[in-house]
Amino acid sequence: METFTTIATYVAACAAGFAVGRLWAPDAIWAVVFGVIAGEFCAAVFWGVALTLATLLPNAGVNARTVGLDFAILVLATPVCGAIAGFLGYRRALPPR
Predict the structure, then answer these.
(1) Distances (CA, A) of 10 to 27, 39, 59, 74
(2) What sign does the dihedral 63-50-9-81 (CA atoms) show?
(3) Reported pTM
(4) Distances (CA, A) of 66 to 46, 50, 80, 85, 97
(5) Is 65 exposed, middle or buried (0-12, 13-18, 19+ CB in 10 A)?
(6) Which has fewest Cβ within 10 Å: 32, 87, 89, 96?
(7) Which residues, in sequence order, are CB contacts of 2 under 8 Å at separation 6+?
(8) What is the 3-state secondary structure (H, E, C) of the chain?
């Protein structure tokens, strides 16, 4: 279950980075910065949901070690995914040459 939610968080980080890069970024560097912020936000939401689930449902079988390892990977990887998606979203929003 933890691995599935980690993959869903990567997809959410890419989608959020693409959206903010396409809609809000005035320049390519800001698209990357907004993508990094969107990726970190997705990692924080994952951590908050996992912590809430483990606290409210102690018998749900949430493995703390797996959640911690997945969160450590997410903290490093989701900003990269969000930054790449933000840059691609910015490029997508440019008018054709």
Answers:
(1) 24, 8, 26, 8
(2) negative
(3) 0.87
(4) 13, 11, 21, 26, 47
(5) exposed
(6) 96
(7) 50, 62, 63, 66, 67, 70
(8) CHHHHHHHHHHHHHHHHHHHHHHCCCCHHHHHHHHHHHHHHHHHHHHHHHHHHHHHCCCCCCCHHHHHHHHHHHHHHHHHHHHHHHHHHHHHHCCCC
Q: Which two tokens stand for residue 14?
A: 């890419």
CA distance 71 to 6: 8
**From CA 19, how far away is CA 94, in angstroms rounded?**
14
Contact 82, 39 (CB under 8 A): yes
Both structure tokens of 76: 């490093």
pLDDT in tens, the chain (97 residues): 778 888 999 999 999 999 999 999 899 999 999 999 999 999 999 999 888 888 898 888 888 888 889 999 999 999 999 999 999 999 988 888 7
